[in-house]
Design goal:
The structure holds 5 protein chains of 5 kinds.
Chain A: H1 3-6, H2 9-15, H3 17-34, H4 36-39, H5 71-107, H6 109-124, H7 127-138, H8 142-169, H9 172-180, H10 184-220, H11 232-240, H12 248-275, H13 277-283
Chain B: E1 4-13, E2 16-26, E3 31-35, H1 42-50, E4 58-67, E5 70-71, H2 77-83, E6 88-91, H3 105-116, H4 121-134, H5 140-144, H6 153-166, E7 171-175, H7 183-200, E8 203-207, H8 211-217, E9 220-225, E10 228-234, H9 235-240, H10 245-252, H11 292-296, E11 302-304, E12 307-309, H12 315-319
Parallel strand pairs in B: 3-8, 3-9, 6-7, 7-8
Antiparallel strand pairs in B: 1-2, 1-4, 4-5, 9-10, 10-12, 11-12
Chain D: E1 2-6, H1 29-32, E2 37-39, E3 45-47, E4 50-55, E5 61-66, H2 80-86, E6 102-109, E7 112-117, H3 124-129, H4 138-144, E8 159-165, E9 169-174, E10 195-199, H5 204-213, E11 218-219, H6 227-232, E12 236-241, E13 245-250, H7 261-270, H8 273-280, E14 286-287, H9 311-320, E15 324-325, E16 331-333, E17 336-337, E18 339-345, H10 348-363, E19 367-373, H11 375-382, E20 390-391, E21 393-396, H12 402-407, H13 423-434, H14 439-455, E22 459-464, E23 467-472, E24 476-477, H15 489-492, E25 496-497
Parallel strand pairs in D: 1-10, 1-11, 18-19, 18-20
Antiparallel strand pairs in D: 2-3, 4-5, 5-7, 6-7, 8-9, 9-10, 11-23, 12-23, 13-21, 13-22, 14-22, 15-16, 16-17, 24-25
Helix pairs in contact in D: 7-9, 13-14
The chains are: A mainly alpha, B alpha/beta, C mainly alpha, D alpha+beta, E alpha/beta.
The complex binds adenosine-5'-triphosphate (ATP) (2 copies) and magnesium ion (2 copies).
Chain lengths: 284, 320, 308, 498, 320
């Protein structure tokens, strides 16, 4: 056995420069979010109404916002919200979507048709619309935003899982398990889901990047995190009113979003490549 | 002067060197069988001659390929491209996937004549229909406008053969043309290929791992093992007096009529992958005649009985 | 093929029913009502009650749905409560704008996306590939309202090539089309590139090389055509966007359209309008998948045969 | 002679130009329709279709002399018959309350009508000056039916409606026959602008850039954030007018801890109006110390009832009420922290004011938690009556009867968000609304009611924005004085295109 | 103990397929009225071309697929009468070795996990030590080095994987194994190894095999009785491996196999045409279209399978 074959997907991902660098970037962002209270030079909610909309300076690297709050500190603390929203929403979305999709794909029939129809429909409505509808339904707030984002993405994962399960269902190793006397539970949880999960996780990673942007778009519509808590999206939307007066209030969060999303996407790409079954075969 | 002469061909893919000094020679009107287990480098040899190695990220690191007086190694891509399809043709292993499912088979065969022979669309069509008829395809006009998914495997393989013939090549390389087919269809296809060579006098490299096919169709045989030539000789000599233990083992793998139960043994061990090759003679771990020397010394290809063999203890020597 | 289309359209009927029900229920579950937006300062609670009765909002939900659905069957989408006009008329007024913008943006993202994806795939791992893909990735990280403002600043304010906003001239379409289109480009080009690389590994490509075709010709004539299949799937699912996906852009560029009609009506709880718009969206989606299937059939003879 | 204005974004999406039925009418409505009377900036009334009027001493009838020679856009003449047809038309419409106090219309002669009242209504003139009282051409109105105001709108105003796309734009063309402008306009002939396009742009940045690049000639309303930028532009002039809007924070008096008037007062005194004005609104506008717009006479109440920032008293009151300073700077009583809900609706200004107020409340030890919702949802929530505590809101209205709207006991929950309902208040309300015969009497009754409301700390006044509009000085020439409460017909008549 | 371990009676299975969502429903009979006996301790072979229903038959026999008609009696018990859980328990005794070793093991399972799965799904919980013992003995049984237990399937060669497949089937100590072309995707050298292994296991463990293949040569070498299928039906049953075939199709099959001996080279009898469309089977003998001896009767009337001299045959004109 050559050493190449034994290496796991993760180490193969990290082996490429894209994988390594992007993971490092993601870690920086996540680290920033985790240690935000210690990293942020100022408290995120302390207003100083005598020093609003200040240009970037040594005291405030990215300037201050319309309440005189330090933009940099708010970006660092905002990472928490943005990442929480993205991670929670997408995880919920992946879980629910996978369950729906797996059940639909495995059991088929009427249930499958029903689920697929609804799922297709939710996918085709613009995310902003779904979000607005659910915010209107359950009220504004972070929870609403997260639920809305998970619903907006649910369809994608359900579809993906369904397609995966449908194709894996007819794999010989599933039949082999039946031949050994395995029941539905064993087949679903020991064979179908573990084999279906990889592309879903990769898609989930990429969706996380999108979710950060979606949170920003929702912020534009005035929905999302409740003030004074910062999030990148909320910062961008409140900064939009000031685009000409204090552009740095949007520039900072904008760059933060771009940085994070690009890192996640690059990592996702590297992961896809590493997980690619053909590459695995080529190693063989 | 032979039509095709390959000498000491070495192929590298990344850090791996799956072909290590392949040598073979072929004349017009001859059929050369290339046999060996999976991974022995049969397809790579074909790809190397066709100049298609870059597609899989490989290149020729040593050796020469002389085709009708032209050195193909290092030939520029444009000239090579002009030769492909016109002078060199390839029949790939899997007819099911070798045709573009989105174009009619007629159009796919026409493409060759349009590209290389400067035919008009109408001329190309006429020629394609002729070819289909020659390959004993009933109702060629209908088949011409069908899509690959509408036909059976055997029919598709015939279409691929027609495609190879369309440029009127001097050399056809058929890479396991029948592995994916049923026995009865396999017999048809092999017969068609043999007839073509006999009628048109072109040269054919028939890649296979089935010694039965070799025995039935080929004039000469090259046995590959682990990217090296184990033995090469005329088909008669190979079967009558196999010098390399590997050749003998390969022949022994086929159940023959009337063979007693329990006498089929196979070759012990596993087919090595590139990178797992043994030192010395690559076959020695599976060889029942292996000696200590075989582990350290690389056997060179030496003349033997009108052919060549790469074994430190070839048949004759072993007995003696 | 025609049979297929007719049958598919017929099958939409039950789906349509279910969708209309879901839409109705969701809209009415949202708190708030349209009357708040109509009551005048100074009017009495009785007047308010009168209004509620006038629009039938006091009836049980099921009855309201029944009335709405019966009218729907007669082709009547009802009258807007706040906007005081037949919903059909409002849709008729806004839909062309949405369609124009949506179709152009759709075409833009399809064409540019496929082109850049193909370019990246043909020159895989070269600087062209990296450059194109990185640029597109960076572009897609900008929220669309931001991208819109940015384009306005550059092309309308600095260069003065296009008007800032509005829907009065063709040139006013350029920036909104670009804004929406660029986001689509990211998706389409990624899918195209991935699909082309995938198809490029298939056996028939090797065969095409063996025939002596040039790399570029193989990629464009054969591989790309295969790669279009997943692209068409993605695009057909996104056809709903043509109709209603441009909300943000409509706001930024002060353009009319179904998306902003929907959102404004949703904000004012103008139920009939919201229901009408959502139905349009649902229909667009259903037709979109049908259209996607037809396009795939025209590309791929295998699909064509299965539709017969 | 063509001009394009961007209308106030708040008027975007108004669906109709039918003054009788439309509950929301944008600035173009008054350009299409003339009213009997119009108001000046000082709220005084000036005749337009009416040349003079007088009220009986008991307030039970009003006599209007009508202008002669007025023709509607469709050529129909304007006379007493029109009034006789028009006023009863309001019955059963959304705007019926406007004419509710009128009993019947008596034609004295072709150009004189007498309105006989059911009860004295000093606000009649104010009502007649609102947009809803634009007079449509009876012939067209009857002919168009439901389509009136949507497909076409026919009045006698200085502009004719050419086309109208809801949410997009309204195109107007000058009425060449117009000779009956009010005396507030210098120009007594046809308007100086020939073709006037009124655009609706929701995104402020876009509107700003349109003006900057010359895509439009004026913004009829400018968000405060853009003022500094606009003022810096050489060819753009910004004009400020007294405000018509008030930001305030209603307090739900029916739930703890605000059943205690001391807590209400403390919260109201904690709001630092000056700070909000100077830091959030760049010092423009005015602080609000009571409920009404300062240009209204009823706002000039006894100063002791005005509410202004007083943190020391605020803290003292909270101490007195038993809410003592606890851990983390949040007051508590019996172990319960003083945490209250602070609701606001989406929209940059609301969110900003709310965030500052949150910080100001924190400064006196009240922990306010913000919830942002869209307007429709939040109104539905108010209707539950007991869910809300504090909210940040604003209203835009220039008559004292707004007090009735927000504080009368008949509208608890919404719009009476303060949930105020006591006999004394109701009595004062009734007197102000129904019991005044003359304008002066009405003013003093409303003052009394206003003062009482202030004394109960039902809300905290916050801020009065100014109105500001901006125009391109290279394209337009504005009259020196803006007549009317807003930039409207009275002054648009005088705008010249360079 | 009866001599018949398994009896198949009139087994029929149809598949419907639709062309597209709304296409016409088309019915094909993959297995039609198949009856056969599997004697205890013997190897019963099934041969036929691709698509003739061999795998479907195998699945029906093991109830991995439900039959439309017919019965499968295992030791006299009708499998269809068993409850789902009883069937699951009975699966210990009936095992399947799949055609494709590459896809019959879950790629996420280590070899160890794959070999433990049988006992796991049968509800046996082994200690780590007992599990290791079990694995070691299983791997030794199929001639693999126990050190491979920690590998993943993709790290194994095809032959190794097929051995794992066999080991998995043996893990539950079955008495009956269905082998569905267990060597079709392997190299000849490895194929012979696997056959040798199967022979050995059969002798050591006294197993009964139903061996499916399309390689008549191999079947004749390995099997005691040979069942020949054509388009879902049995056309001939050869009672022993060296019984001369009588059905024209079986004869054609035999002639299509190449002998690995250039001396026996001959022009291959061309079996023209291909399998008829299974959705539209001809009314008479399915083989009539390809048969040199076909008469009008063959084209209109289907010959029944008749037992004569211990040799079952379905042909109107058997060559004498
Ligand atoms: N693209 C590639 N990258 C790395 N190794 C490769 C590549 N293509 C082939 N090889 C290796 O080169 C060796 C020879 O491969 P080749 O395809 O020539 O075998 P073959 O004799 O044709 O086998 P088969 O009978 O399975 O077709 C194999 O070990 C294979 O793993
Ligand atoms: N699940 C299924 N659904 C529809 N058709 C099927 C299904 N399984 C098999 N078939 C069809 O039944 C026929 C017989 O298939 P089967 O797999 O039994 O053939 P086979 O003899 O095993 O062929 P091979 O040698 O290729 O394995 C084929 O035409 C196949 O297409
Ligand atoms: Mg090969
Ligand atoms: Mg099979």
């Amino acid at each position: 056995m050559s050493r190449l074959r034994k290496s796991s997907a993760l180490s193969r991902t990290l082996g490429t420069w894209r994988g390594g660098v992007s993971l490092l970037c993601i870690l920086i962002v996540v680290g920033g979010a985790l240690f935000a209270p210690w990293l942020a030079p100022y408290a995120y909610d302390i207003q100083n109404l005598s020093a609003t909309n200040q240009d970037p300076s040594w005291a405030h690297w990215l300037g201050t916002d319309e309440f005189g709050r330090d933009v940099l500190s708010r970006i660092i603390v905002g990472a928490r919200t943005s990442l929480t929203v993205a991670i929670t929403a997408i995880s919920v979305s992946v879980l629910v979507g996978m369950s729906l999709g797996a059940a639909a794909g495995y059991f088929g029939g009427l249930f499958d048709r029903l689920v697929s129809a609804v799922v297709d429909l939710t996918w085709s409505f613009p995310e902003v619309l779904i979000a607005l509808m659910f915010v209107a339904l359950i009220g504004a707030g972070l929870e609403a935003t997260m639920i809305a984002i998970s619903i907006a993405y649910l369809a994608q994962f359900a579809r993906l899982t369904r397609a995966q399960v449908m194709s894996i269902k007819s794999e010989t190793y599933v039949e082999a398990a039946v031949n050994l006397g395995a029941g539905h539970i064993h087949i679903l949880f020991r064979h179908l889901l573990p084999n279906a999960i990889t592309p879903v996780i990769v898609a989930g990673m990429l969706a996380m990047g999108d979710a950060i942007i979606l949170e920003a778009t929702l912020g534009f519509f005035g929905l999302g995190v409740q003030p004074p808590k910062p999030s990148w999206g909320a910062m961008m939307s409140s900064g939009t009113a000031q685009i000409f007066l204090a552009p740095w209030t949007i520039l900072g969060p904008g760059l933060a979003i771009a940085f994070t999303v690009v890192s996640i996407n690059l990592f996702g790409d590297a992961l896809i490549e590493a997980l690619d079954i053909r590459n695995r075969l080529r190693d063989n | 002067m032979a039509l095709l002469t390959v000498r000491h061909l070495c192929v590298s893919i990344g850090r791996l060197q799956p072909l290590d000094g392949v040598t073979l020679e072929l004349d017009k009107g001859q059929i050369l069988g290339v046999v060996g287990e999976s991974g022995s480098g049969k397809s790579l040899t074909a790809m190397a001659v066709m100049g298609l190695l870059p597609l899989i990220g490989g290149h020729i690191s040593r050796g020469s390929i002389d085709f009708d007086g032209t050195e193909l190694v290092g030939l520029n891509e444009r000239t090579y491209r002009a030769m492909r399809g016109q002078r060199l043709a390839l029949i790939t292993q899997n007819p099911m996937t070798s045709l573009d499912p989105m174009h009619t088979v007629g159009a796919q065969i026409d493409q060759v004549a349009l590209l290389h022979l400067g035919f008009s669309a109408a001329q190309a069509r006429t020629r394609t229909l002729e070819l289909l008829a020659q390959l004993r395809i009933p109702d060629a006009a209908t088949v011409y406008q069908q899509y690959p998914h509408q036909m059976s495997g055997g029919m598709k393989q015939r279409i691929v053969i027609a495609m190879a013939l369309a440029g009127d090549p001097d050399l056809i390389i058929a890479d396991e043309p029948t592995t994916a087919l049923d026995v009865t269809i396999q017999a048809q296809i092999i017969q068609i290929l043999v007839d073509l060579v006999r009628q048109r006098g072109l040269a054919l490299i028939l890649i296979t791992h089935d010694m039965g096919v070799v025995a039935q169709a080929c004039d000469k045989v090259v046995v590959l093992y682990g990217g090296r030539v184990a033995e090469s000789n005329s088909v008669h000599n190979i079967f009558a007096r196999p010098a390399h233990p590997y050749t003998r083992a390969l022949i022994g793998c086929i159940a023959q009529t009337g063979q007693a139960r329990g006498s089929l043994k196979g070759i012990p061990g596993v087919v090595p992958g590139v990178g797992d090759f043994a030192s010395g003679c690559r076959y020695h771990p599976r060889c029942d005649h292996a000696q200590d020397r075989c582990q350290s010394e690389v056997p060179l290809l030496q003349a033997n009985d009108a052919g060549q063999v790469a074994c430190l203890f070839p048949e004759g020597a072993c007995r003696g | 093929m025609l049979n297929f289309v007719i049958k598919r359209l017929l099958m939409l009927v039950p789906v349509f029913l279910a969708v209309s029900m879901i839409i109705f229920l969701i809209i009415h579950m949202v708190p708030g009502d349209p009357i708040d937006n109509m009551v005048q300062i100074g009017s009495s609670p009785e007047q308010r009650a009168e209004l509620i009765a006038k629009y039938g909002l006091d009836k049980p939900l099921l009855v309201q749905y029944g009335v709405w659905f019966r009218n729907l069957l007669e082709g009547d989408l009802g009258n807007a409560i706040i906007l005081r006009r037949p919903v059909a008329e409002l849709i008729e007024e806004n839909l062309p704008h949405s369609l124009l913008l949506g179709c152009l943006a759709f075409a833009f993202s399809a064409i540019v996306g496929v082109a850049s994806g193909a370019l990246a795939a043909i020159y895989k791992d070269s600087w062209i590939d990296r450059g194109v893909m990185t640029l597109i990735l960076l572009g897609s990280t900008l929220p669309s309202f931001w991208l819109g403002l940015l384009l306005i600043l550059v092309f309308a304010v600095q260069l003065e090539w296009f008007p800032v906003s509005g829907a009065r001239s063709w040139s006013a379409l350029v920036l909104p089309v670009l804004t929406i289109g660029l986001h689509g480009v990211a998706l389409v080009s990624r899918v195209t590139r991935a699909a082309m690389l995938d198809v490029g590994r298939r056996d028939f490509v090797l065969m095409l090389h063996a025939k002596g075709l040039s790399h570029r010709r193989i990629q464009l004539q054969h591989v790309l055509r295969h790669a279009l299949l997943p692209v068409v799937t993605i695009l057909s699912l996104r056809i709903g966007w043509i109709v209603g996906g441009a909300v943000t852009i409509e706001f930024v560029f002060a353009r009319p359209g179904l998306g902003s009609l929907l959102i404004t009506s949703l904000n004012q709880r103008d139920y009939p309008v919201v229901q009408g718009c959502l139905l349009m969206l649902a229909m667009a989606v259903m037709l979109g998948t049908l259209l996607g299937d037809l396009v795939q059939a025209s590309l791929d003879p295998r699909v064509r045969d299965s539709l017969k | 002679q063509d001009a394009t204005f961007v209308i106030n974004a708040r008027e975007n999406g108004f669906p109709t130009y039918n003054p009788l039925k439309g509950t929301k009418l944008n600035v173009a409505n008054n350009l299409i329709f003339d009213r009997l009377v119009v108001q000046d900036a000082d709220h005084s009334f000036h005749g337009q279709l009416a040349t003079s009027w007088e009220s009986a001493p008991d307030g039970m009838s009003w006599t209007f002399k009508l202008r002669k020679g007025v023709k509607f856009h469709d050529g129909e003449p304007f006379n007493a018959k029109v009034i006789e047809w028009w006023l009863p038309k309001f019955k059963g419409t959304e705007n019926a309350y406007m004419t509710e106090s009128i009993d019947k219309i008596v034609i004295i002669d072709d150009y004189t009508v007498k309105l006989v009242m059911k009860n004295p209504d000093p606000a009649l003139l104010f009502n007649l000056a609102t947009s809803f009282m634009g007079v449509p051409s009876p012939k067209s109105y009857e002919a168009l039916g439901d389509k009136f105001g949507v497909a076409a709108a026919v009045g006698s105003g200085p502009f004719k409606l050419e086309s109208f796309t809801v949410g997009q734009q309204t195109k107007l063309v000058r009425n060449e026959d117009y000779r009956w402008a009010s005396d507030l306009s210098k120009n007594q002939g046809p308007a100086k602008i020939k073709n006037l396009t009124l655009r609706e742009i929701s995104e402020d940045s876009t509107a700003f850039l349109e003006l900057k690049t010359g895509g439009v000639d004026a913004l009829l309303s400018v968000p405060t954030d853009f003022l500094p930028k606009l003022q810096a532009e050489k060819s753009i002039k910004v004009v400020m007018l007294p405000g018509t809007e008030v930001f305030y924070m209603p307090i739900n008096t029916s739930v703890e801890p605000f059943t205690d008037i001391k807590v209400r007062e403390a919260v109201a005194l904690a709001v630092n109006q000056k700070e909000i004005m100077s830091s959030l609104f760049g010092g423009t506008g005015a602080v609000a110390n009571n409920f009404l717009v300062s240009s209204l006479q009823e706002s000039k109440i006894n100063p002791k009832f005005n509410i202004s920032y007083n943190p020391d008293r605020s803290k003292k009151l909270l101490d007195e009420a038993g809410w003592l300073m606890g851990a983390g700077g949040v007051r508590a009583k019996g172990g319960v922290p003083l945490t209250v809900k602070l609701w606001t609706q989406n929209g940059t200004q609301f969110k900003r004011v709310t965030e500052v107020i949150q910080a100001q409340l924190k400064a006196v030890g009240v922990n306010a938690e913000i919830t942002v919702q869209d307007a429709a949802s939040i109104n539905a929530m108010y209707k539950k009556k007991t869910d809300h505590q504090l909210a940040v809101r604003s209203y835009d209205y220039v008559n004292a009867d707004i007090l009735d709207w927000f504080f009368s006991g008949t509208r608890l929950g919404y719009p009476n968000i303060s949930m105020w309902n006591d006999p004394k208040g109701e009595a004062l309300n009734a007197k102000a609304m129904k019991g005044s015969k003359t304008w002066d009497e009405r003013v003093s009754n409303f003052k009394a009611y206003h003062e009482y409301i202030m004394s109960q700390f039902l809300f905290a006044p916050i801020y009065q924005p100014t109105q500001s509009f901006a125009y391109s000085t290279t394209r337009l020439k504005m009259p020196d004085n803006i007549r009317g409460i807003k930039l409207a017909t009275q002054s648009i008549m005088d705008i010249e295109v360079k | 103990m009866s001599a018949k371990l398994l009896e198949v009676r009139g087994l029929t299975r149809t598949f419907t397929s639709r062309n597209g969502l709304f296409g016409r429903k088309r019915v094909m009979t993959a297995v039609a009225d198949v009856s056969l006996d599997v004697p205890r301790g013997q190897v019963t072979g099934v041969v036929g071309e691709s698509g003739c229903g061999k795998s479907t038959l195998a699945r029906l026999v093991l109830r991995l697929l439900e039959a439309d008609q017919g019965q499968v009696l295992f030791e006299g018990v009708d499998l269809a009468s068993l409850s789902a859980s009883a069937m699951r328990r009975l699966r210990r005794r009936l095992q399947f070795v799949f055609q494709d070793p590459y896809s019959s093991i879950d790629p996420r399972y280590t070899i160890r996990a794959a070999l433990l799965e049988p006992s796991q799904v049968q509800g046996e919980h082994l200690h780590a030590a007992a599990a290791t013992d079990r694995i070691n003995s299983l791997m030794a049984m199929v001639g693999l080095n126990p050190s491979l237990a920690q590998s993943y399937p993709h790290q194994l060669s095809g032959g190794q994987k097929q051995r794992i497949g066999i080991a998995r089937a043996l893990a539950l100590q079955p008495s009956f194994l269905v082998l569905d072309e267990p060597t079709a995707s392997l190299d000849v050298s490895i194929q012979a190894q696997i056959i040798a292994l199967l022979e050995k296991l059969q002798q050591e463990l006294g197993l009964t095999y139903l061996f499916i293949s399309h390689d008549l040569g191999l079947v004749r070498y390995f099997c005691d009785r040979i069942v020949v299928m054509y388009l879902g039906r049995i056309v001939e049953v050869l009672p022993s491996a060296d019984t001369p075939p009588r059905h024209p199709y079986t004869i054609a099959l035999m002639e299509s196999t190449f002998e690995p001996d250039p001396a026996k080279r001959r022009v291959i009898t061309r079996l023209n045409g291909e399998l008829p469309d299974a959705f539209n089977p001809p009314p008479g003998c399915a083989y009539a279209a390809r048969c040199a001896h076909a008469s009008d009767r063959c084209r209109s009337e289907r010959p029944a399978l008749v037992l004569r001299d211990g040799h079952e045959l379905a042909c109107h004109h058997p060559p004498t």
